[in-house]
Backbone:
């Protein structure tokens, strides 16, 4: 069993010609598994950054600004731009080989990974400052699809006596198989997750939501609670 070393895993694009090369750290991963055909496909969420002008003196931040992040597979990408108002949000689908000369997904794993099987082991590993990942498996019986999410646990809450834990972390990517999309990569929502048991997950999804101002905004606003199988992994 090998967990992803997210702190040392990257997506790097190389443009056609002499344009900008960008190396961006990976934030989370999701493997979609079709139970009927056995087909699997991996998707990776990159860390967010802000809209910027390249290689000028100043100013470098674009105004109005937006968050830039995206999802990459071996062949496809989905760029997600989240702006000050949801009316300016933008999702851009494409094929990596058409947009860039080369896309590298360098996914590194830890040499040693241990599955933590109970609350006491999870609490102890947290207090020892072990690097913690989670794998969350979700099953969608309506479609026969299974999703296996993997992500670093950035925030872990705990109690020592009795031993209790509560994961509160993100961002990660969560599939919505009810969404009407042209390409599977477009079915993902950006989400955070919380849970304090290994058989249930509570996700909050980033979606457009009305605000007190005339314009709607995009924020974490839609909660989904669903059965899940969590594995907590300690690595070094």
Residues:
């Amino acid at each position: 069993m090998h967990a992803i070393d997210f702190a040392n895993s990257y997506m790097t694009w190389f443009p056609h010609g002499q344009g900008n090369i960008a190396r961006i750290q990976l934030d989370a991963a999701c493997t979609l598994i079709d139970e009927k055909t056995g087909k699997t496909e991996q998707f990776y969420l990159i860390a967010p950054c802000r809209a910027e002008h390249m290689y000028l003196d100043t100013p470098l931040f674009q105004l109005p600004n937006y968050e830039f992040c995206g999802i990459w597979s071996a062949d496809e990408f989905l760029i997600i731009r989240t702006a000050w108002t949801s009316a300016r949000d933008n999702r851009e689908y494409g094929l990596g080989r058409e947009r860039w000369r080369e896309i590298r997904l360098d996914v590194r794993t830890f040499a040693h990974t241990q599955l933590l099987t109970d609350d006491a082991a999870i609490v102890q590993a947290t207090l020892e400052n072990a690097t913690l990942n989670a794998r969350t498996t979700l099953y969608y019986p309506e479609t026969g699809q299974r999703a296996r999410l993997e992500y670093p646990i950035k925030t872990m809450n705990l109690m020592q006596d009795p031993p209790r834990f509560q994961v509160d972390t993100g961002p990660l990517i969560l599939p919505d198989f009810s969404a009407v999309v042209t390409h599977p990569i477009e079915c993902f929502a950006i989400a955070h997750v919380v849970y304090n048991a290994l058989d249930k997950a509570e996700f909050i999804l980033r979606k457009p939501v009305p605000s007190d101002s005339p314009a709607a905004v995009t924020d974490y606003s839609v909660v989904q609670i669903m059965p899940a199988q969590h594995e907590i992994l300690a690595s070094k």
The chain has two helices and 17 strands. The mean pLDDT is 96.
